[in-house]
Amino acid sequence: MPTTLVSAAELAQHVDDPKWVVVDCRFDLARPPSGREAYAAGHIPGAHYAHLDEDLSSNITPQTGRHPLPEASTMAATLGAWGIGNDTQVVAYDAGNGAYASRLWWLMRWLGSERVAVLDGGFKAWTDAALPVTTALPTVVATRFSPSPRAAMLADATAVGQRTADPSWRVLDARAPERYAGMVEPLDTKAGHVPGAHNHSFTSNLGQDGRFLPPELLKAQLQHSLGVVPADRAIMMCGSGVTACHNLLALEVAGLKGAQLYAGSWSEWIRDPARPLALGPTP
Question: pTM above the 0.70 mark?
């Protein structure tokens, strides 16, 4: 039962397995239709398409960030419509680096399922291995997914504000260093980071081939970013609660368990003008 990463070779052995369901999570924040277009042009046989905005998030409100979590019941209904039940093995993939696939990985774990993994290297790894691609839509046998949300996996803005000032906790921001520092901001209305949060860019979890680093290297890098703080006293955030899930997956691969997600992340934090902002590199 893969629970973190799966290789293209291993997935290829199960594409016809009715107990396995594959979900294509390809997306581009700059051009949201591109993922569905890529799926229509060719995808892993049997894969369903999951749109970040439409399937893996709920509607934006004046209080939320850019990708609010879906309601548990809504996400469960979506999973069931894809033929995913509580005993189904799910493999999520995106174009390559796992930035979007890890969102579905985390959502399923939040809803109580451990039977979910990310295709290491994504669609690129699949095609590089000359494995089959199709434009055919999958045959769906709808089922029921019964959610059991794990509230302890989440932290809210109040907790983030408190714990950034507490040396026994660590908040890690998964955005690129230049966005964290406030040097650039391509997506949100204000630049910078939560005061006291440290930077651990999700791209540092990957090798040059776009696949996750070996567990021992991930562990060393993540422990460096955590400092003396154990993983179960850490909160992951990013711009909108997506690439933070990549850091959560990397922690799990490294055997560092128990970190929380601030799902609203920076795009929610800046909604309240009373919340402080900081600029510059990691402390």
Answer: yes
> Considering 106, 124, 149, which residue would you say is the last residue of a domain?
149
pLDDT at position 1, please?
87
Per the prediction, the chain carries an average pLDDT of 97
Q: Are 83 and 16 in contact (CB under 8 A)?
A: no
Q: Give the pLDDT of residue 68.
A: 98
Neighbours of 149 (CB within 10 A): 16
| One domain for residues 195 and 209 | yes
Angle at 256 between CA 253 and CA 261, to 5 degrees: 90
Q: Is the separation of the CB atoms in 252 and 4 below 8 Å?
A: yes
Residues belonging to the active site: 238
Rounded to whole angstroms, the Cα distance separating 176 from 246 reads 13
pLDDT confidence of 227, banded at 50, 70, 90? very high
Nearest to 156, CA basis, from 268, 254, 280, 35: 268
- The answer to whether 119 and 23 have CB atoms below 8 angstroms apart is no
Note the residue count of the chain. Answer: 283
Please tell me the number of Cα atoms within 13 Å of 46 on its side-chain side.
19
- pLDDT tens-digit readout, 194-205: 999 999 999 999
108 and 161 inside one domain: no
**Separation between Cα atoms, residue 8 and residue 105, nearest integer Å:** 17
Tokens of 23: 């979900």
Average of per-residue pLDDT across 198-224: 97
